[in-house]
Design goal:
The protein is an alpha+beta fold. The chain is built from 13 helices and 14 strands. The longest helix is centred in the first third of the chain and has 14 residues, at 73-86.
Length: 392
Amino acid sequence: MDATEVQGAVEPGYEPVRAAFAGNFERRGDRGAAVAVYQQGRKVVDLWAGTAAPDGSGGPWRQDTAQTVRSATKGVAAACLLLLHQRGQLDLDAPVGAYWPEFKARGKERVTVRDVLAHRAGVPALDVPLTPEQALDGVSGPRAVAAQQPLFRPGAEHGYHAQTFSWLAGELVLRASGRSIGRFVAEEISRPLGLDLWIGLPGDRVAQVGRIADTEVPEPAVSGGLRTRAKQSVHDAYADPESLTRRAFAAITPLPDENDPAYRAGELAASGGIATARSLARFYAALVGKPADGPRLFAPATVTAARTAESDGPDRVLVVNTRFGLGYMLHGPASPLLAPGSFGHPGRGGSLAFADPAAEVGFGYVTNGMQRNVTADPRAQALVRALRECIR
């Protein structure tokens, strides 16, 4: 069997998604990937192909192969905070310092939980970056963020908290619930829904996870958003080591080895999540509807809050206009999703997961080939366009 032969199934009417997925391997450089879609609680797309590592090692991509999904993790982390709010354990409009007194230092007294979720907390970078070991120790990250002076006026502007979101979200979950964010995900989301989705990979699941690596982008492969041929201002921001953009993405320096077992076991809520495409799609489907065999996670009011724009306009870090709800990117030019009501989160270099309440859709795409993009991967966008065609 050809390693890139598409495995799995689609329901009648979803054949365009299969065609787009096959096209990702033929024309857009995919090496190993999976895509899944749930609609109205029913799985309608479940496809996988390629190898478990971009270089062909590790054997074929299997039905249960999981991958590190980078910033797609943020959508899962946001759900933890919103579930705590839904249960009355976390007030979105309370100061972060009400739960985490140390955070009030250096002018952050008025930063709210809502500001954290909307990337308005003002601490997207650290004056002194953390080493990979410090980033994972559960103590150094929260301490550094609490001690950091805001880098722009909290509440008044927004800038993507690429790495520091790990410690902001993780510490708030810990302070409000008494549980680490990895444990909270396991107990309140993954176990009830039967998901292969972790923030902190258990030791007995190591063999299930493939490897990720940077791969080249075939030309032309553009699809909007922050892509390979970005405008000059974006290029300059990423090239300048002193820019807020570079500093935000370099809050952990040197860059960690994302295939390292220690990194995978760490509970980095901004970037360290591991999941199958099927589990991401089922997770998002459960946010907006009742699965056939599991709980609905969000009440309708929570769905409305998640997808209502909180930050909309120039992003101090990504240097384009971005739109955020409560922890979720919203449909727009920088991050095209299914429709204007969609909410979710991409992972830098590839993965994407989102929900669309109107269509009752949950979507998940994961890949092991990390390409040079931030919010709108050409492969993911090809799948979204095909799905849009299926559900008109």
